[in-house]
Amino acid sequence: MRPVKIITDSCSDLGGDIRKQYDIAYARMNTEYDGKELPASLDWEYYTPKELYDVMRAGNRVLTTQVPVDEFTNIFTEYLEKGFDIVYIGCSTKQSGSVNTAAVVAKPLLEKYLDGRIFCIDSYNACFGEGMLAVQAAEYRDAGMDAQTIADHITAVRNDVNEYVTVNSLDTLKRAGRVKASSAFLGNMFGVKPILISDVNGDQTPIKKVKGRQASMDELVKLLKESIIRPENQRIYIAHADCIDDAEYLKSLVEKEIPCKEIYMNYIGPIIGASIGPSAVGVFGFGKTVEFEA
Amino acid sequence: MGTAQLQGKKFIELVTGGAANLQANVSIVNDLNVFPIPDGDTGDNMSLTMAGGIQAIEGCSEGSLSEISEKLAQGMLLCARGNSGVILSQLFAGLAKGFHGLDAANIKTVGFAIRSGVRRAYESVMKPTEGTMLTVAREAADQACADITPESTLESFLGEYLTEMNASLQRTPELLSVLKEAGVIDSGGAGLVYLIDGMNRSLHGRTEKTDNITTKQKSTDTRGFNENSVMKFGYCTEFLLQLQTCKVNLSSFSIKTITNYLDTVGDSVVAFQTGSIVKVHVHTMTPGSVLGFCQKYGEFLSVKIDNMAIQHNDSIVQNRFEISDGVPPQKQKQFGVVTVASGAGVQEAFRNLGADVVIDGRDGKNPSTEDFMKAFDVVNAETVFVLPNNSDIIMAARQAAELYTKSDIRVLESRNIGDGYAALSMLSFDSGNVNEITDTLNQAMNGVVTGLVTTSTRDATLNGVTIHEHDYIGFSEKNMIASSPSKTDTARILLEKLGISQKQVLIVIYGIDVTEEEKRMVRRYMTEHHSKVELFEIDGGQDIYSFMLILE
């Protein structure tokens, strides 16, 4: 059996530590602001999280691009050359065109590397919802599955990812065109906080309103507690867009409410951050299959 | 005599012209971008992708058609940005495949290659969506290629290809509902038309830019007003007026000059001044006289006048006078909301939060039972939720609910503006369950506190607070809490006594008399003393209360 390389992208928000632990590579998208286009590094080599989020706090828009063709070409070639099969788990196609581009790039490469295989999977998720699928894929790989089997398994569980995220305002998501919301959420909400999930098709959509930031964070944990399955065997993921105090609060609440194997906390990376805006926080785990459709 | 063969050199000329035309229209294409992600970059993505291809074929004019088209496609793929860029690159990759091994191509082969491009583009997309540039490329190719005859020339072919493409583009909203809702055609398709248009121009030796694409669909439905209609609703009239020193003394000019006049010829008046520019919104039967009056003080920077009988319903300010004319009933929707508020800014905020009708509720003009019933008619929903927002109005609303038979009317006990806001901000019909929605709205009103600041009309001592005539007073429910000669001090004392430090959110609705400086003082006070409380400001435009403070 050929060895398998798991690849994700800048939207997975997996930090260097966990990528190293699970031997996961990622294809980089780009951010663009102040007239500079820079790779969206999950290791923050080009700017710090605070620098990026401060740009947005000052009212400036950070633009993003999907994974460029040459980035995919390079990373796929690197591993095909080494004799790997590739499972690429990308950001929801409702949010990014990267999975499509990957498939376009893969086709001619496979004409050259006749023995190689590349599976490009729409994760239906973003942020840790995508990242945790990549980690799951790595665990399947380490259990000895081949690329095809891993791809099938990930496809089967991608709707079991439970994401609950809150933001202070939907403005950034709306401006980036990355939220699918009914009119009840579209006006100025004056302090009412939306709870967002990734729906059955991978659209980010608000499902309910909560009064105030504090209550919205409590609601995230309450919702995850209700829907998560076998938390004791899982890692729960907590993501934050440069609001570490809120993330620490969520962590303490999760520790208290949902006994789990491990908690992994990290910044929301440059790409998701640019779309969701500073102050977003969210919790992620595997649970009941998502059926909600926006 | 036309061109019978497409040579490599000609191909370079054509795509270069196409790329230039696309580049020239990039912002138009960006503005059309609503699918799949409305981030307004389709034009940039396509243009940059095209530019990458053009760069790759620079200096290749001696090459064969096959070599050049392959280089172009390769360059485009490497520079492909966004979905639209990738699809565009694949159209050209398929084209190159169709030209493979050829020095030059006759028209039939050109058609074949174009269709090869369409196939390649469709293959490249996991879930092809119709109503996008894929459809535009496919329909145009199918039609134009089917019409190729031995007499066809490059000129005749490209001309028809462009015509068909444009026709297909105009049909995209019928295939993709997000386009129809936004009233636009597909952006990627439009980009493609600009590209082919540029190629066509280049073929005819023309490079000037004209607009042959209709970029916006008509969004006005004029059925609301015809030759037999009687003008009932008037015109929603909005303009920006640049005050001019040659017409008016800027330092002594008061916006009241204009608002006082507007009140005599219209309603739903919103007017404010920023520097020497005045922004006006008014509903009037006689927009001509409004413009005539205002022109005495300056000139217009922009003017918008809409007949409200045919206006988009989301921008109508429903007030009691308009309601009395009624609107012909259509099919009932499931849920609706009627609320009561005064001040254009507050009404606007309530409409934004989801109210279908905001009845004008200025003090002394409490809405009658009849006003409510007319509002229910306008909403025309199976269930109507009513937020009276004033304890003195709840009775009238209840009575209307009893008398009204066409809908299930649920009157909520919102006693003041804060209750109404708190309830509306949590409004969501997603559950589809009337009782559940009612419960949510009722619960939302728990824990909200409303404070009001106005001026006293007499000397008094109330609730232990000594008040002088013309002083500002602050109260909540019916309890007097604060009094001071200073407007902002009154607000500050009121906020403290209402327990602002324990709250998460403060909404301040400014009355018409509040100055920018006073607003700044409120902001500064909140930042310095209560930075954890989220502050939201609304220019309410109400006349009696300087500040309406909603604490949650």
Explain this structure to me?
Chain A is of the alpha/beta class. Chain A folds into two domains: 155 residues, Rossmann fold (3-Layer(aba) Sandwich); 128 residues, Hypothetical Protein Tm841, Chain: A,domain 3 (2-Layer Sandwich), CATH 3.30.1180.10. Chain A contains ten helices and 13 strands. Chain A has a six-stranded mixed β-sheet, with helices on both faces. In chain A, strands 2-1-6-7 form a four-stranded parallel β-sheet, with helices on both faces. In chain A, strands 4-3-5 form a three-stranded antiparallel β-sheet, covered by helices on one side. In chain A, helix 1 links the parallel strand 1 and strand 2. Chain A is globular and about 55 Å long. The termini of chain A are far apart. Chain B has four domains: 199 residues, Serine Threonine Protein Phosphatase 5, Tetratricopeptide repeat, CATH 1.25.40; 81 residues, Alpha-Beta Plaits; 129 residues, Rossmann fold (3-Layer(aba) Sandwich); 103 residues, 2-Layer Sandwich (Hypothetical Protein Tm841, Chain: A,domain 3). Chain B has 20 helices and 18 strands. Chain B has a six-stranded mixed β-sheet, with helices on both faces. In chain B, helix 20 links the parallel strand 16 and strand 17. The longest helix of chain B is centred in the first third of the chain and has 22 residues. The relative contact order of chain B is 0.06. Classes of the chains: A alpha/beta (294), B alpha+beta (552). Chains A and B meet through helix 4, strand 10 and helix 8 of A and helix 4, helix 5 and helix 17 of B.
